[in-house]
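Lab notebook page, bench 4
Experiment: in silico fold of construct C2
Operator: M.H.
Input chain length: 119 residues
Purpose: comparison with the prior construct
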Amino acid sequence: MLNLGHKNLDVFKRSIELTKEIYRITTHFPKEEIYVLVSQLRRAAISIPSNISEGFARESKIETKRFLDIARSSLVELDTQIIISNEFGYIAEKDLIIINELIQRVFSMLSKLINKYKY
């Protein structure tokens, strides 16, 4: 693995933690959701640290900010999918609390980081 600076960022580490939690909880979803909600949740979760990484690989602040914005948008998408999953009763209350705390934390961290790249 490459030894790159974004891996030391708390927001990157928390987004990886969030992705792991999404994978953990979706293993318990009904089989008919594998190609629908499970797939959507996992792709949105993976998109968050992936876009953080890609943003920090860019040479301009404008491009870095753009990828951080995309990461935050994926987080909002994930949040919506969590709401839907909860409405269908697919997420245990204790897992919902963990996921919501991680989403709030990552959103806050991304927002602060994005504000540093405003011009």
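Observations: Helices lie at 10-26, 34-57, 61-87, 93-116. Residues 85 and 91 are 6 Å apart (CA to CA).
Next step: discuss at group meeting.
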